[in-house]
Specification:
- The complex is a heterotrimer of chains A (about 350), B (about 80) and C (about 260).
- Helix content of chain A is about 40%, strand content about 20%.
- Chain A is built from 13 helices and 15 strands.
- The model of chain A has no long low-confidence stretch (mean pLDDT about 100).
- Chain C has about 260 residues and is α/β, with parallel strands linked by helices.
- The N and C termini of chain C lie far apart (about 55 Å).
- Classes of the chains: A alpha/beta (about 350), B mainly beta (about 80), C alpha/beta (about 260).
Chain lengths: ~350, ~80, ~260
Amino acid sequence: MKKEFRLLKGNEAVAEAAIRAGADAYFGYPITPQSEVLEYLMLEKPEERTGMVVLQAESELAAINMVFGAAGAGRRVITSSSSPGISLFQEGISYIASAELPCVIVNVVRGGPGLGTIQPSQADYFQATKGGGHGDYHMLVLAPAFVQEMADFVPLGFKLAFKYRTPVMILTDGLIGQMMEKVELFEQIPRATEFDQDWVATGKTPDRERNIITSLDLQADQMEKRNHRLQAKYKKMQEEEVRFEEIACEDAEYLMVAYGSSARICQKTVQLARDRGIKAGLLRPITLYPFPSNYLQAKAETVKGILSVEMNAGQMIEDVRLAVNGKIPVEHYGRFGGMVHSPNEVMEAFEEKIVKP
Amino acid sequence: MAKQRGAIVVDIERCKGCELCIEACPTSVLRMERKVNGKGYHFAYMENPGDCTGCINCAIVCPDGVISVYRVKVEV
Amino acid sequence: MSIHVKSMDVKDIIKEENLVYRKSPLMTDNVLSYCPGCGHGTVHNIIAEVIEELGIQSNTIGVAPVGCSVLAYEFIHIDWLQAAHGRAPAVATGLKRVMPDKYIFTYQGDGDLAAIGTNETIHVCNRGEHITIIFINNGIYGMTGGQMAPTTLEGMVSSTSPYGRDVSTMGNPIKITELVAQLPGTYYVTRQAVHKPGNVRKTKKAIRKAFENQELKKGVSFVEVVSNCNSGWKMTPVKANKWMEENMFVFYPLGDIKVDGELVK
């Protein structure tokens, strides 16, 4: 089979991958810097290619609840937005997590808070990994660093969403969303024709009990039971789904931890450091939830310090610090509010905060 | 000449005593029982069963669906 | 035969072969969580009867709201989704778009449909999704304890308009049903009630039509049922219904507003 390569924007890669992943529906609302997802889908006429439904909703509130509806029918549903829109999604995500529905949500993060800016940012890390909406829940969070991963994480996202019946977030940013790179496209995956009758609301047939998709348990003991079920899922994710990439970590004395766009930048910083004779390494978490805590805990035995490099004021650093539990110094560096740090800026901070002290 | 005779059965434990059935009955068959059910509600009963025509009006306005209606045609 | 009609023994009448009415078998055995005399139960039973008569149980999915009828899914024996407050039309859209041949309906109160969910309501009606919306209007927030709703009448007392709704500061009651009837995406819009047997029969006809319309794929069928909230209004059920006739029906007159895509003159 001949490989299929295309030059695509990250946002376009998500859209093309959604069609190829056999998605049944996309519901979204325009917002910069992710509008190309919806634009690409509308242009591609996926209803003709695969029968996939694409609908521009009247708001993010409506979009995420359309996701809730279609996901309740057991369909593969995907949506995308950017930070302010993702804030509006939160109500729906909390309901989706509680009702245990699978779906994929793409957040092409921009600088905040508030209306913020349209430039890339990683300031939604807390929101993505700690829950975001009300109640005790998590999404499984994937952080692509390349346009290739923007495509590949869509079918992976669906796989994990259905495995755990949970919302999966692809947490990227305006930089990767807008950047064009060569992408090897995977072959078309057929849309599902059968749905898990144990839970889908597709109409009660005589051969099964009726299914009710709800996030409500008025009896507190039942709600506690539901919460236990969610927590058991998160524990299983922590055991089975942690994904990360090590770059020059094997002999590293000093480590950077960075994901997504920031990891791309830090890759260069590793080179700069090695050129100066500093044994630097980079850990790139690919799943932000579950976080590679065990890896970092083990690494704290051999490295002397860690710099958490994020395009925010210091969010992932809390997870890094929790993992190493005070054993070694952990510092933060990063530009934010839509600014992107350079490899040299990171290098200076790395030397000053981690290598020198 | 054929005439209809009806009768109702009230699911006493599910009756909430709202009295809408009494209002709906065109032949004033129903009254509220002085006794109460397990939930503490007075419940409907046929005070004048001979006047029931089985029109089902009481049953369809009952929000709790506690009334079943039976009907026979009687030759007079 | 010469049986005296009046003296006929009730026991001779109450036999399975003489049964002429019983609540729909599609109603579950769960005791309704509504107050005595509340119209929700009546409308639930009508929906169950319509689904049963049309034989569409295996093809019908309901969307429950937030409000008193949040637990609607406990009472009608079909598949359900329970939506966030006001979002039922969006949830129904998601369902209908991926299952265009299924019967999808929302069941919503006035706070849900006409306040927090106004945007979803207007746009689902404007897009003309082929769904049914059952809208229960009792002019009050029942579940949270009788607060003012978007539909609360001028001067009407509620727990958040304890001196009566002052429209100069609290805004006007909204006739959302007339509003959605103006939109090209609605095919059938009607306002009914369930407080009297005749009204129950009319409402059943309307709800049946609203479900049958889904087969035509011509847009939203919207059935408003003006209902009482005797707990919220602080009246007996019988008095509440009388008050409803004298006050609610004046501002929210019963009858068809749009039929087969045409506004009723």
